C-alpha cells in the first residue's frame, strides 16, 4: 500500500472514530429522551384513567387543538407559475384555470414522489417543504430534484399544449433551507402551516428569481452542490443580517445524469444519495433497538451495532470497496442484530425480515436487498464467509477479539448468556473464550493488520484468569 493510501486510510480512521464518538453521545441522548418520554406517558396515562373520555369531551379537553412542531432542518420551495395575470387572447378563462389545476396536480405528484409535504397554493404560487413531517437529512436534495422535475414537466407541457407557439405559463422557483415551525391542524387529514425566517427567505428568493430559473440560497447550495451544476446568481439583501448569496441550479451534474440533460438521476446518483440517506435509516434502527431490545442484552446492544457499522466502513475502505459496496456493508451491519428485538437464537433471520420490510421504502433495489440479507446471514456463528464483503462484515462483527477492551466487552457477553441460563461460571466462559479465539482467524488483510497482534495478547490475558 502506498504512502498516499496509508495517509488516506489514517484520515478515514480518524473520521470514523469521531463519528463513533458522536454516535455514542447520540445514544446517551436517546436514552435520556426515552426516559423523559416514558415519564410523560405515565403522567398522561394516569390523567386519562382519572378523567373518563366522556368527561374530557364535556369540559372541552378532548377537542383537538392546533399544535406546533419545530423542525431544525427543512427546505422550503416556492414555485410561482406566471400566466394567470396575462391570459392569451381568445383563451377562455375556464380553460386557463383547468390548465393551472393540471399543473398543480402534477406538482403534487412530483412532491409526493420525493416525500415532500405540500403546504398550500396561493393564487398561482405552489408552496411545499421537505423534511416535514418526517425529519430527514436528504430534504435539500429531494426538494431541488423536485424543482428540476417541475421545471422539466412545465417545459414539456407547454410544447404539448401549444406546439411551440407563444407560451402561456412561465415558472420561477425559490428554495431555502433552515429552521421552521409547523402548525398542525385537522382531524382526518393533517395539515401543516409553516412559519419563520426560512419561509420568508424562500419567498424572497423566489421573488427575485427569473422565468425558467431555479434559485437556491447559499444554505441550500452547500447541502446540494455535490449533486447539481450551480452558477452564482447574486446577493439578496437581508435586513439586520449579511447579504444572502444565491445560486442558479442548471440541473444534475453530468456524472449523475442518466439522460445527459441533467433531469434524470443515474445509478451513481442513487448510490451517493443512499450514503447520505443512510443516516436517516440509522437513526430509525438505533431508536428501534433502544426501545425494543430486551434488557438482558448487555453485549448485543446499540453500542455493538454502532461499532460494527463503523468497522465495516473502516475495513471496507482499507480493502478498496466501491461506494455501493460500502453502502451495502453499512446497511447490513445496521440490521445484523435488529432481529434481537424478535428472537435471540434466530436473530440473523429476523434481521433480514426487518430489512426486507423497511429498505424498499428507501429505494434500495431488490438485488441490493438480497445482497444485504446474505451479508446479515453470514454473521451467524461460526463465520464462514464466501466473498470479500462477507469477510469484511464477519471481521467487523468480531472486531472486539483483537481490541484492548476485549475482556470487559467479553464479560458483557458472558452476563448476557448467563441471564438466559446459557452459560455457567465465569471460569467456564474464559475456557470457552480461549478455545474460540485460538481457533478464530480474521479473513481480511486490513483486519489482520489492525487486530491480529492484539488478539494473541488477549489469549494470554484470559489464560492468566483461568483457574483449574
Descriptors for this entry?
468 residues; alpha+beta; Alpha-Beta Plaits; Hypothetical protein af1432; 15 helices
Structural commentary:
The protein is of the alpha+beta class and 468 residues long. The protein folds into 2 domains: 67-265, Alpha-Beta Plaits; 270-463, Hypothetical protein af1432 (Orthogonal Bundle). It has 15 helices and 8 strands. It has helices at 3-50, 53-58, 93-113, 139-162, 197-208, 218-224, 267-292, 302-318, 323-335, 347-358, 366-377, 388-397, 406-419, 426-439, 445-463, and strands at residues 67-82, 117-122, 125-130, 170-185, 191-195, 214-217, 228-236, 244-252. Strands 1, 2, 3, 4, 5, 6, 7 and 8 form an 8-stranded mixed sheet that branches. A hairpin with a 5-residue loop joins β4 and β5 (191-195). α3 packs antiparallel against α4. It is elongated. The model is unreliable at 47-64 (pLDDT under 50).
Radius of gyration: 27 Å
- Give the H and E element order: HHEHEEHEEHEHEEHHHHHHHHH
| CATH-assigned fold name of the largest domain | Alpha-Beta Plaits
Mean pLDDT: 87
Name given to the CATH homologous superfamily of the largest domain = Nucleotide cyclase, GGDEF domain
CATH level 1 name of the largest domain? Alpha Beta
As residue ranges, the low-confidence spans are 47-64
The secondary-structure class comes to alpha+beta
How many helices?
15
Give the distance, in angstroms, between the N- and C-terminal Cα atoms.
46 Å
Helix content: 40-55%
How is the topology of this model organized?
Blueprint: H1 3-50, H2 53-58, E1 67-82, H3 93-113, E2 117-122, E3 125-130, H4 139-162, E4 170-185, E5 191-195, H5 197-208, E6 214-217, H6 218-224, E7 228-236, E8 244-252, H7 267-292, H8 302-318, H9 323-335, H10 347-358, H11 366-377, H12 388-397, H13 406-419, H14 426-439, H15 445-463
Parallel strand pairs: 4-6
Antiparallel strand pairs: 1-3, 1-4, 2-3, 4-5, 6-8, 7-8
Helix pairs in contact: 1-7, 1-8, 3-4, 7-9, 8-9, 8-12, 9-11, 9-12, 10-11, 14-15
Amino acid at each position: 500500500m502506498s504512502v498516499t493510501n496509508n495517509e488516506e486510510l489514517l484520515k478515514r480512521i480518524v473520521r470514523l472514530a469521531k463519528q463513533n464518538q458522536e454516535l455514542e453521545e447520540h445514544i446517551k441522548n436517546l436514552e435520556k429522551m426515552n426516559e423523559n418520554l416514558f415519564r410523560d406517558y405515565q403522567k398522561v396515562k394516569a390523567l386519562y384513567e382519572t378523567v373518563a373520555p366522556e368527561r374530557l369531551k364535556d369540559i372541552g379537553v378532548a377537542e383537538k387543538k392546533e399544535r406546533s412542531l419545530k423542525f431544525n432542518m427543512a427546505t422550503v420551495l416556492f414555485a410561482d407559475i406566471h400566466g394567470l395575470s396575462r391570459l392569451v387572447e381568445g383563451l377562455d378563462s375556464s380553460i386557463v384555470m383547468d390548465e393551472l389545476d393540471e399543473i398543480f396536480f402534477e406538482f403534487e405528484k412530483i412532491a409526493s414522489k420525493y416525500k415532500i409535504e405540500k403546504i398550500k397554493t396561493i393564487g398561482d404560487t405552489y408552496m411545499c417543504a421537505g423534511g416535514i413531517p418526517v425529519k430527514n437529512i436528504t430534504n435539500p436534495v429531494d426538494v431541488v430534484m423536485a424543482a428540476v422535475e417541475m421545471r422539466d414537466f412545465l417545459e414539456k407541457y407547454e410544447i404539448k399544449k401549444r406546439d411551440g407557439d407563444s407560451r402561456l405559463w412561465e415558472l420561477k422557483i425559490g428554495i431555502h433551507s433552515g429552521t421552521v415551525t409547523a402548525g398542525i391542524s385537522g382531524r382526518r387529514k393533517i395539515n401543516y402551516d409553516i412559519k419563520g425566517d426560512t419561509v420568508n427567505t424562500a419567498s424572497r428568493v423566489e421573488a427575485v428569481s427569473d422565468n425558467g430559473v431555479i434559485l437556491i440560497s447559499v444554505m441550500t447550495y452547500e447541502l446540494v452542490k455535490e449533486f447539481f451544476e450551480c452558477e452564482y446568481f447574486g446577493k439578496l439583501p437581508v435586513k439586520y443580517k449579511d447579504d444572502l448569496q444565491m445560486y442558479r441550479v442548471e440541473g444534475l451534474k453530468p456524472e449523475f445524469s442518466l439522460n445527459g440533460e441533467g433531469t434524470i438521476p443515474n445509478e451513481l446518483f442513487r448510490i451517493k444519495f443512499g450514503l447520505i440517506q443512510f443516516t436517516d435509516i440509522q437513526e430509525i434502527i438505533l431508536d428501534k433497538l433502544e426501545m425494543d431490545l430486551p434488557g438482558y442484552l448487555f453485549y448485543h446492544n446499540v453500542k455493538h451495532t454502532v461499532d460494527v457499522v463503523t468497522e465495516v466502513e473502516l475495513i471496507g475502505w482499507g480493502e478498496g470497496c466501491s461506494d455501493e459496496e460500502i453502502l451495502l456493508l453499512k446497511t447490513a451491519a445496521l440490521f445484523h442484530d435488529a432481529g434481537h428485538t424478535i428472537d435471540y437464537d434466530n436473530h440473523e433471520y429476523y434481521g433480514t425480515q426487518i430489512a426486507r420490510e423497511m429498505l424498499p421504502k428507501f429505494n434500495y433495489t431488490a438485488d441490493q436487498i438480497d445482497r444485504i440479507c446474505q451479508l446479515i446471514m453470514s454473521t451467524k456463528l461460526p463465520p464462514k464467509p464466501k466473498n470479500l464483503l462477507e469477510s469484511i462484515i464477519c471481521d467487523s462483527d468480531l472486531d472486539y477479539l483483537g481490541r484492548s477492551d476485549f475482556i470487559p466487552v467479553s464479560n458483557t457477553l458472558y452476563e448476557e448468556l448467563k441471564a438466559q441460563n446459557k452459560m455457567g461460571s465465569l471460569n467456564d466462559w474464559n475456557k470457552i473464550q480461549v478455545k474460540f479465539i485460538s481457533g478464530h482467524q480474521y479473513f481480511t488483510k486490513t483486519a489482520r493488520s489492525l487486530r491480529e497482534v492484539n488478539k494473541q495478547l488477549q489469549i494470554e490475558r484470559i489464560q492468566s484468569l483461568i483457574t483449574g
